[in-house]
Structures are given as structure tokens and as C-alpha cells.
Fold this protein.
Amino acid sequence: MSSGFHAVRYLAHALEKGDTLKAVVERLGVSEPTLQAWRRGQTPGGKKTQSSEQGAAPLELVVVHPPKQHAPSPVATTFAVVSLQGWRVEGLGLEEAAQLLRRLAC
């Protein structure tokens, strides 16, 4: 099914609920002439589509939940910088490790 078909179904549902055509086109992000062409079963260029999908089933409500936020790790993340000569600096945070490596020109 085309996006135009879904937009027309959405428009019909929204108009039944009392929305205006202007509000629907703003929400969908399409122009009013495009949506009107889709309602007539045409593409925006004016060509008739193969099927205008009359008598389609009502829209199905889909609920979208935002992704769950993960709690920060209770264990602090630290880094150790180890040189080829064997010296070691441990317990650095990410920014501290980055500053050290920049100063050492690594």
C-alpha cells in the first residue's frame, strides 16, 4: 500500500474526530493539493492510481513507547594508560585519560 493510501485513511479518521484538513496536512507534512489528489485516487502528478482502496478497514491504533533509559552503571568506569616502557597510570576517567594521551602526544 502506498503512503498516500495511509494518509487518506488517517485523514478520514481525523476528520471523523473533528480535526480540520489544514491541521492534518500540517501533521502529515504534505501539501493540501497532494492530500486532495490522494483522496481522489490520483498521484500528485494527476495520474489515476490502480486502486483507490474504497471501503478500507478503519485505522489501527499503534502506541509507540519511548526507549527505556538505562540506569548508569553502579561501577565507575576507569581507564589505565600503560606505556611500552612499562609505566602505568590507573584510575583515570575518560577525559583525564584523553588529556594525558594528548599531552604525551600519542
In short: Helices lie at 3-16, 21-28, 32-39, 94-103. The chain has a mean pLDDT of 75. The beta strands are 79-82, 88-92.
